Amino acid sequence: MNLQKCAFAWVAVVAACSLTACLPSAGSSRDSDSEEDAAGSSGDDNAGSFSSVEQADTEGSGEETAGEREPFDEDAARDAAESELASQQYDGSYGCTVDCSGHEAGWQWRAEHGYAVDGNSNSFSEGGRAYDEALESRVDEMRGNYDSGEEPEY
Predict the structure, then answer these.
(1) 0.70 cut: is pTM over it?
(2) How far is it, in rounded angstroms, from Cα 50 to Cα 30?
(3) In angstroms, what CA-CA distances link 86 with 21, 63, 69, 72?
(4) What does DSSP assign to residue 43?
(5) Cα–Cα distance, 9 to 78 (Å, whole number)
(6) 89 CB contacts (<8 Å, ≥6 apart)?
(7) Which CA distances in Å does 152 have to 13, 26, 71, 141, 147?
(8) Collapsing DSSP states into helix, strand and coil, what is residue 31?
(9) Could you tell me if 137 and 93 are in contact, meaning their C-beta atoms sit under 8 angstroms apart?
(10) Distance CA 40, CA 80 (A)
């Protein structure tokens, strides 16, 4: 029984010593410079070494957290691209015969309703397809920029 008490006491002493070693590094940022100088002049070469190791561990873990990026958000990119394109006019990608009014109507229908439909004219349908193609192109551009390390634009 005495051996168990001795072992328990030894564990308590080791734990207390470990905690005591943590206190100067944690308190050094709050304590005055004169207390740090006094601790440094005590002749104990190991007094600052624990603090350095602890600081390096903290910095390392912070870098991992800061270095991680959220994955590319396809939905947010698509929403942002939709918002951009909704205020634009037909881009002329399919060409026009006279005034582009059919293409423009198809483009606007797609922007307002969220889907393209086949209309009564080829130009209307082409306007909706042109919007979808412009949307995909813009999302691809945003993904490429993200993959190149730029911040997301959404």
Answers:
(1) no
(2) 17
(3) 62, 40, 29, 22
(4) S
(5) 64
(6) 104, 107
(7) 53, 38, 10, 11, 10
(8) coil
(9) no
(10) 57
Q: What is the residue type of 30?
A: R
CB atoms within 10 A of CB 39: 15
Amino acid at site 150: E
pLDDT score for 12: 53
- Measured from the Cβ of residue 72, the count of other Cβ atoms closer than 10 Å reads 16
Q: Which residue has the tokens 């873990």?
A: 61
For residues 12 and 119, give the distance between their C-alpha atoms in angstroms, rounded to a whole number.
82
The C-alpha atoms of residue 23 and residue 39 are separated, in whole angstroms, by 12
Copy the structure tokens of residue 123. Answer: 């130009």
Give residue-wise pLDDT tens across range 31-67: 444 444 444 444 445 444 444 444 444 444 444 455 6
Q: How far is Cα 35 from Cα 40, in angstroms, rounded to an integer?
A: 9
Name the DSSP class of 21: H
Q: Are 4 and 32 in contact (CB under 8 A)?
A: no
Q: What is the DSSP string of 90-132?
A: P--TT--SSS-HHHHHHHHHHHHHSS----SSHHHHHHHHHHH
